[in-house]
Structure formats: structure tokens, C-alpha cells
Description:
Shape: elongated
Order of helices and strands: EHEEHEHEEEHHEHHHHHH
Structural class: mainly alpha
Helix content: 40-55%
Oligomer: single chain
Strand content: 5-15%
Distance between the termini: 78 Å
Amino acid sequence: PEYGRLSGVDLEKIRLGATVDLSGYEKDNPRDFTLFKRCRLAELKRGIFVKTEWGNVRPSWHLQCAAMGMKYLGESFDFHVSSRDLLFPLNENENAIALALSGKPLARYWLHCEGVYEDGHKVGGPHGPRMTVDELLDRGVTGREIRFWLLSTHYRKPLSYSEEKLALARKSLARLDRFAKALADHRGGKPLGDLDQILYDLKTSFQAALDDDLSISAALSSVFNLVKRINAAFTTASIDEKGCEKVLEALHRVNDVINVFDFAGRVPDSRVDFLIKERAEARAAHDFKKADAIRQRLADMGVTVRDPKAAKE
């Protein structure tokens, strides 16, 4: 009796042979679906069959999915993730099988993702190109870049693939990397008065975005808003080392969810402290040639130096 509730399909509008594929079988009702299919000769030769009282058969896709889910995750589990084009009839049929067996829905929450498209064609579709993560990695795209590109669009919206989209992901990650590095390398400065409020804003806006049907674009916007506000503090030397540590701690918590930051190699080095101090002394003595040479040494070590802007008179 609950059939159709998951997908919201109007069962009265299902037409035999049009809305539902007959799959080579005569149906008493267009809403009927296959549990077992008679094996073809090629499948029999390969041993892909199960002996039953109805002959040598193989389970339908609906039955396979329901059986695997219930075997490994239990009669009813928390999340079922699928493509939107599989909501009906596949997911509806999986759920019907589970309800018939246990009286429980197969999953408490169903998340249906849109597809990836290139030049208007769905990747992996009948007219679209094939694409795998391994193929992208072979092209020189990093795992982080792929992840950020996938995260950049809401899961229920079509995701567009292009070299330009990957380049944007690469540019955004480079900005985040520079920011994390600047936080780890920063020395001096004064305490930022409203830092606690800034970090509170990050936490609440990030969490609120994810609570709103995983609105990942809004969640990432809250991160980049933090980057903008702290970068402004860098330019006026209005954030100190302790404040930078608090920002890094907040970003680590965010990264537990999005996993796009690269915090590797951010351990403070005593040589860095010495060189930064020596450069500051050289600048104070107007020995800019020495200061520039030290800046280059720090750059070779992977350390970016930010000088505060001179105060306007």
C-alpha cells in the first residue's frame, strides 16, 4: 500500500510500456516489477544463475540491491545514497522489497544526487563520455582538486565538468593553502579584538549551511569569508601568533567535514623565527637589500612574509 510514496510518483499516470519498461515480460499491472529473470544462455555458460523451482534464474537489479543492503547493513539502515534518475523505479522497488520482508523501510533517509555533465551530456550516460577518478588522476588532476570540484555544487544540482571548472578548484585550493601557511608562519602583530566573534560566526554559519540540506556552497562561503576577514587583519598587523593558532584550530574542525585543507609541514621552525627577526632589524636599519635577500631565503623555505601596510598620515 505504500508503493510510490518514496518517489512521489503518481501511480495512476504510469502507462504500460511507456513510463515503465516491460523488460520482456507481460505484466498484470504496470506497477509490477521483476524479482527474478530467466537466465540467458550466455549467463548459464558463465555460471551466472541460481537454481530455483522456477528454473535457472538471476536476481533482478532491485532484488540484488535490497539483498546486499539488508545483508550487510541490517533490515533498516540510516542512509541510502543514489542517483536521482534511479529514484523510480529502482529505489522504490528496493524499498518495497524491504517493507514486504520486514515491515520496515530499507533506509531512514534517502539522498539522491544529480549527475555529472560534460557538454550537456551526462557522464556515463548512453550519449555522454565516460569518466572515472583514476582517469582524472592520470591527467594530472590531484585528489584534493577533484574533491573540491565535487563539493563546489549542491548534491541535488547538476555538476558541470570542464577544464575551466577544475582550474577554478585549483585556484581556490591555492588560496586556502596560502592562507593556512600564512597563519602558521605569522609572527608578531597585536591581538585581534573581535577574533572570538569571527570564529563564532564561522562555526554557526558553517553548521547552519550543512543543516540546510547540506548547502555546501554556503558552507564554503563561510570559510572564504573568514579568509577575507583574517587577511585584512594581516595587512594591518592586527592579529598575533596566538590568534593565528586559534584560527588554525577552527579550520581543523571545519576540515574534519570538508577535508580540503593541507596542513602538512606547518611545524614552526626556530630558523624561521631567527630569519624573520633578522629581516625586521634589517628593515628598521633601512638595509632593504639584506631584507629582500632574507625574504628570498624564507620563500625558498616555503615561508611567505607579509609586511603590514604603512599607516596613512
